Automatic annotation (TrEMBL):
<keyword id="KW-0805">Transcription regulation</keyword>
<dbReference type="InterPro" id="IPR051081">
    <property type="entry name" value="HTH_MetalResp_TranReg"/>
</dbReference>
<dbReference type="InterPro" id="IPR036388">
    <property type="entry name" value="WH-like_DNA-bd_sf"/>
</dbReference>
<dbReference type="InterPro" id="IPR001845">
    <property type="entry name" value="HTH_ArsR_DNA-bd_dom"/>
</dbReference>
<keyword id="KW-0804">Transcription</keyword>
<dbReference type="InterPro" id="IPR036390">
    <property type="entry name" value="WH_DNA-bd_sf"/>
</dbReference>
<keyword id="KW-0238">DNA-binding</keyword>
<dbReference type="GO" id="GO:0003677">
    <property type="term" value="F:DNA binding"/>
</dbReference>
<dbReference type="Pfam" id="PF12840">
    <property type="entry name" value="HTH_20"/>
</dbReference>
<dbReference type="InterPro" id="IPR012318">
    <property type="entry name" value="HTH_CRP"/>
</dbReference>
<feature type="domain" description="HTH arsR-type">
    <location>
        <begin position="1"/>
        <end position="87"/>
    </location>
</feature>
<dbReference type="GO" id="GO:0003700">
    <property type="term" value="F:DNA-binding transcription factor activity"/>
</dbReference>
<protein>
    <submittedName>
        <fullName>DNA-binding transcriptional ArsR family regulator</fullName>
    </submittedName>
</protein>
<dbReference type="InterPro" id="IPR011991">
    <property type="entry name" value="ArsR-like_HTH"/>
</dbReference>
Length: 117
Protein backbone atom coordinates (compact mmCIF):
# COMPACT_ATOMS: atom_id res chain seq x y z
CA UNK A 1 0.00 0.00 0.00
CA UNK A 2 2.88 2.40 0.76
CA UNK A 3 4.36 1.87 -2.70
CA UNK A 4 0.99 2.60 -4.33
CA UNK A 5 0.48 5.71 -2.21
CA UNK A 6 3.97 6.90 -3.07
CA UNK A 7 3.39 6.29 -6.76
CA UNK A 8 0.19 8.32 -6.88
CA UNK A 9 1.65 11.14 -4.76
CA UNK A 10 3.12 12.77 -7.87
CA UNK A 11 0.72 14.82 -10.03
CA UNK A 12 2.37 13.69 -13.29
CA UNK A 13 1.84 10.05 -12.38
CA UNK A 14 -1.78 10.72 -11.42
CA UNK A 15 -2.30 12.34 -14.80
CA UNK A 16 -0.75 9.33 -16.53
CA UNK A 17 -3.16 7.03 -14.68
CA UNK A 18 -6.09 9.18 -15.80
CA UNK A 19 -4.89 9.02 -19.40
CA UNK A 20 -4.55 5.24 -19.27
CA UNK A 21 -8.02 4.92 -17.77
CA UNK A 22 -9.52 5.51 -21.19
CA UNK A 23 -7.27 3.30 -23.31
CA UNK A 24 -3.84 1.66 -23.44
CA UNK A 25 -1.15 3.98 -24.78
CA UNK A 26 2.43 3.68 -25.91
CA UNK A 27 5.15 5.38 -23.90
CA UNK A 28 5.56 7.84 -26.78
CA UNK A 29 1.86 8.75 -26.74
CA UNK A 30 2.05 9.38 -23.00
CA UNK A 31 5.22 11.47 -23.38
CA UNK A 32 3.67 13.58 -26.17
CA UNK A 33 1.07 14.90 -23.72
CA UNK A 34 3.64 16.36 -21.32
CA UNK A 35 6.11 19.23 -21.51
CA UNK A 36 8.74 17.13 -19.71
CA UNK A 37 11.41 14.99 -21.35
CA UNK A 38 10.75 11.46 -22.58
CA UNK A 39 13.26 10.01 -20.08
CA UNK A 40 11.34 11.74 -17.25
CA UNK A 41 8.07 10.23 -18.49
CA UNK A 42 9.81 6.86 -18.73
CA UNK A 43 10.87 7.14 -15.07
CA UNK A 44 7.28 7.95 -14.07
CA UNK A 45 6.02 4.92 -15.99
CA UNK A 46 8.65 2.75 -14.29
CA UNK A 47 7.48 3.89 -10.83
CA UNK A 48 3.87 3.13 -11.78
CA UNK A 49 4.87 -0.25 -13.18
CA UNK A 50 6.86 -1.17 -10.05
CA UNK A 51 3.84 -0.23 -7.89
CA UNK A 52 1.71 -2.54 -10.06
CA UNK A 53 -0.51 0.29 -11.28
CA UNK A 54 0.35 -0.10 -14.96
CA UNK A 55 1.31 -3.05 -17.10
CA UNK A 56 3.69 -2.59 -19.99
CA UNK A 57 3.65 -5.06 -22.86
CA UNK A 58 5.95 -5.16 -25.86
CA UNK A 59 4.37 -4.48 -29.24
CA UNK A 60 7.25 -4.75 -31.66
CA UNK A 61 9.68 -1.99 -30.71
CA UNK A 62 7.02 -0.07 -28.80
CA UNK A 63 5.87 -0.57 -25.24
CA UNK A 64 2.13 -0.29 -24.62
CA UNK A 65 0.94 0.62 -21.14
CA UNK A 66 -2.44 -0.13 -19.61
CA UNK A 67 -3.98 0.73 -16.26
CA UNK A 68 -4.18 -1.92 -13.52
CA UNK A 69 -6.62 -0.88 -10.77
CA UNK A 70 -6.23 -3.86 -8.42
CA UNK A 71 -3.46 -2.33 -6.28
CA UNK A 72 -5.70 0.65 -5.58
CA UNK A 73 -8.24 -1.55 -3.74
CA UNK A 74 -6.19 -1.87 -0.54
CA UNK A 75 -5.50 1.87 -0.49
CA UNK A 76 -9.16 2.66 -1.17
CA UNK A 77 -10.21 0.36 1.68
CA UNK A 78 -7.83 2.07 4.07
CA UNK A 79 -9.05 5.52 3.01
CA UNK A 80 -12.63 4.37 3.58
CA UNK A 81 -11.81 3.55 7.21
CA UNK A 82 -10.98 7.23 7.70
CA UNK A 83 -14.49 8.15 6.60
CA UNK A 84 -16.27 5.75 8.98
CA UNK A 85 -17.03 6.69 12.59
CA UNK A 86 -14.34 5.46 14.94
CA UNK A 87 -14.53 3.79 18.33
CA UNK A 88 -17.45 4.77 20.50
CA UNK A 89 -19.18 6.86 17.85
CA UNK A 90 -20.08 3.74 15.89
CA UNK A 91 -21.46 2.07 19.03
CA UNK A 92 -23.42 5.18 20.00
CA UNK A 93 -24.90 5.37 16.51
CA UNK A 94 -26.01 1.73 16.80
CA UNK A 95 -27.53 2.42 20.24
CA UNK A 96 -29.43 5.42 18.88
CA UNK A 97 -30.82 3.28 16.07
CA UNK A 98 -31.92 0.63 18.56
CA UNK A 99 -33.63 3.20 20.82
CA UNK A 100 -35.61 4.63 17.90
CA UNK A 101 -36.56 1.11 16.75
CA UNK A 102 -37.78 0.16 20.24
CA UNK A 103 -39.82 3.37 20.56
CA UNK A 104 -41.40 2.74 17.18
CA UNK A 105 -42.29 -0.85 18.10
CA UNK A 106 -43.88 0.25 21.41
CA UNK A 107 -45.84 2.96 19.66
CA UNK A 108 -47.15 0.44 17.10
CA UNK A 109 -48.40 -2.09 19.70
CA UNK A 110 -52.26 -2.16 19.82
CA UNK A 111 -53.90 -0.63 22.93
CA UNK A 112 -55.43 -4.01 24.06
CA UNK A 113 -51.94 -5.57 24.23
CA UNK A 114 -50.60 -2.60 26.25
CA UNK A 115 -53.38 -2.91 28.86
CA UNK A 116 -52.91 -6.66 29.35
CA UNK A 117 -49.19 -6.31 29.89
Amino acid sequence: MDEVAGAIADPVRREILLMLRGEPMTAGQVADRFAISRPAVSRHLRVLREAGLVRGTADGRRRVYELVTGPLDELAGWLETLRRPAGWQQHLDALETEVYRTRRERRDVPVAEKESA
